[in-house]
Recover the amino acids of this structure.
């Protein structure tokens, strides 16, 4: 067994995928959830624990645990191998096939992030970090919380990290791709972060991939600065604190979205574990999709200033486009989320979250403030302001109900609302889960499930099935042929080995028969398989008898009595009891 197969046999695919997708058990070995690779409301993503394989019947994504890690974490095959091996304590073989220039570069960039994080943390604890420590104390961040979130400090020199990386003999290419250094026209490097409080940014697996830095000097042009994008860091795809928050999001069945690093830290430290931040960048579909894998409910709590309200307004449209259920929190006293937790306490903040109003009431309040609702024109303008967000609701009945509700809230005539609504509303259609390409017989599904999962069944059944004409009438006949060839060649007969030998159409048939079919694999027994084989044999004999009888009659009608007698004798021999 090569290392790839050894690794796969040692890992539970359900556990790995379950870290990224909220899975629900739908059978003895089957689990379903919302696909992480496309937006959907009805789960069409299936994982089979026994066959260690996943398949989305909506977008067609499929593969083994390595393919999943490659796709969801945007890493190469060697990186996926290494990542899974490290997480499961399995030593990696030192072979050239598991490395290539791109993978080695990404590995070096990951290593640079770890070196930088340790250097920043040491600087925060040392004499140079005194100002940064005073800032954290002022914001109510204890040394324990600072250590938990890996906070650090980049000094003023502009060369301290560069010197460390040069001393460790990282190459110019590796340093340039790290996202932590700038490059001058003459080719020399300098530290991107200077005199800043440093926040490590992690991917969903918890690996450091970049940093955010808050300026400590008020005269600094940029209050916050992020790492430059790199082979491992794409700001449009990463939410701050998601690697810590995902368990809390699932437990609370909601995410709390705040704007900044300090908000996420303060709220999390107060005990609200389901909080994430957008790292100071505009929310993207990738951000929302990452959240929706864990819960479709979200509470938006941006800063109470005008910029925060505007950002929340923009976010609502995007969240609704991704079918999220959105609520909005507004904090009194002009306080940011972390300030509110510090001044009013965690329970008061959690109460605010629990009582958060639906987004359309928050928008309606903004419409009231923006338009003169004492006039018909103002009321209509307010409703038109709200209409785009209402249109993004996925269900038509819900859209009409919300439209009428908001119209009453604004004092707009219901008839006018319906007229405007009919003119502009577009029905949104969920992506349809793919229907089975062909109707499969019960016996072929039972036999296929048995042969894929049981060596004993293959030993008992294949010899009889190979010679049966009935198998050639199966929709899955090419799958059976591939399975027979796989078994005859002495190769391991596994779902993914069989899947790899099929064309796309037959791969889908196999998935429907084994990964999605409602046949309960717990009650399929070898005796059932034997009965299916015997039934197919009997039906084959009956078909042969019917064909002979037809040939006898045809010979008689043609006056060919000799041929008719010969065929009748063959028919008699077949009809004789054993």
């Amino acid at each position: 067994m090569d290392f790839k197969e050894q690794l796969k046999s040692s890992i539970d695919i359900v556990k790995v995928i379950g870290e990224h997708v909220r899975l629900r058990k739908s059978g003895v070995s089957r689990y379903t959830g919302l696909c992480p690779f496309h937006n959907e409301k009805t789960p069409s993503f299936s994982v089979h624990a026994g066959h260690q394989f996943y398949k989305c019947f909506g977008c067609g994504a499929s593969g083994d645990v390595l393919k999943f890690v490659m796709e969801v974490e945007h890493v190469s095959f060697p990186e996926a191998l290494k990542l899974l091996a490290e997480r499961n304590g399995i030593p990696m073989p030192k072979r050239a096939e598991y490395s290539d220039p791109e993978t080695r570069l990404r590995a070096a960039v990951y290593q640079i992030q770890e070196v930088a994080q340790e250097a920043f943390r040491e600087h925060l604890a040392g004499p140079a970090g005194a100002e940064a420590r005073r800032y954290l104390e002022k914001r109510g961040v204890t040394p324990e919380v600072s250590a938990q979130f890996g906070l650090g400090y980049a000094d003023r020199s502009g060369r301290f990290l560069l010197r460390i990386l040069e001393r460790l003999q990282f190459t110019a290419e590796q340093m340039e791709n790290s996202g932590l250094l700038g490059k001058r026209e003459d080719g020399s490097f300098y530290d991107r972060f200077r005199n800043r409080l440093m926040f490590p940014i992690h991917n969903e697996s918890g690996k450091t991939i970049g940093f955010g830095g808050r300026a400590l000097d008020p005269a600094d042009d940029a209050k916050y600065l992020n790492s430059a994008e790199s082979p491992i860091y794409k700001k449009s795809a990463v939410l701050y604190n998601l690697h810590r928050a995902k368990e809390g999001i699932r437990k609370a069945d909601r995410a709390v979205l705040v704007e900044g690093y300090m908000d996420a830290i303060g709220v999390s430290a107060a005990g609200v574990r389901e909080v994430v931040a957008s790292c100071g960048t505009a929310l993207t579909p990738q951000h929302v999709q990452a959240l929706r894998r864990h819960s479709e409910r979200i509470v938006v709590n941006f800063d109470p200033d005008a910029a925060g309200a505007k950002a929340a307004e923009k976010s609502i449209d995007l969240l609704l486009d991704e079918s999220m259920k959105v609520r909005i929190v507004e904090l009194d006293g002009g306080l940011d989320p972390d300030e509110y937790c510090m001044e009013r306490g965690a329970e008061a903040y959690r109460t605010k979250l629990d009582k958060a109003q639906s987004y359309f009431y928050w928008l309606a309040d903004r419409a009231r403030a923006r338009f003169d609702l004492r006039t018909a024109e103002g009321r209509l303008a307010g409703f038109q302001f709200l209409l785009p967000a209402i249109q993004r609701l996925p269900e038509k009945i819900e859209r009409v109900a919300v439209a009428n509700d908001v119209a009453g809230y604004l004092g707009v005539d219901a008839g006018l609302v319906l007229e405007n609504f009919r003119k502009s509303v577009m029905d949104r259609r969920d992506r349809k889960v793919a229907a089975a390409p062909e109707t499969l017989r019960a016996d072929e599904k039972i036999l296929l499930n048995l042969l894929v999962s049981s060596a004993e069944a293959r030993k008992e059944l294949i010899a009889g099935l190979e010679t049966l004409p009935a198998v050639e009438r199966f929709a899955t006949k090419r799958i059976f042929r591939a399975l027979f060839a796989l078994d005859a060649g002495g190769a391991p007969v596994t779902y993914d080995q069989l899947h790899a030998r099929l064309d796309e159409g037959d791969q889908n048939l196999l998935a429907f028969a084994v990964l999605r079919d409602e046949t309960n694999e717990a009650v399929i027994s070898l005796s059932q398989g034997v009965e299916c084989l015997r039934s197919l044999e009997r039906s084959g004999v009956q078909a042969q008898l019917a064909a002979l009888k037809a040939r006898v009659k045809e010979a008689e009608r043609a006056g060919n009595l000799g041929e008719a007698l010969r065929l009748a004798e063959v028919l008699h021999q077949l009809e004789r009891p054993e």
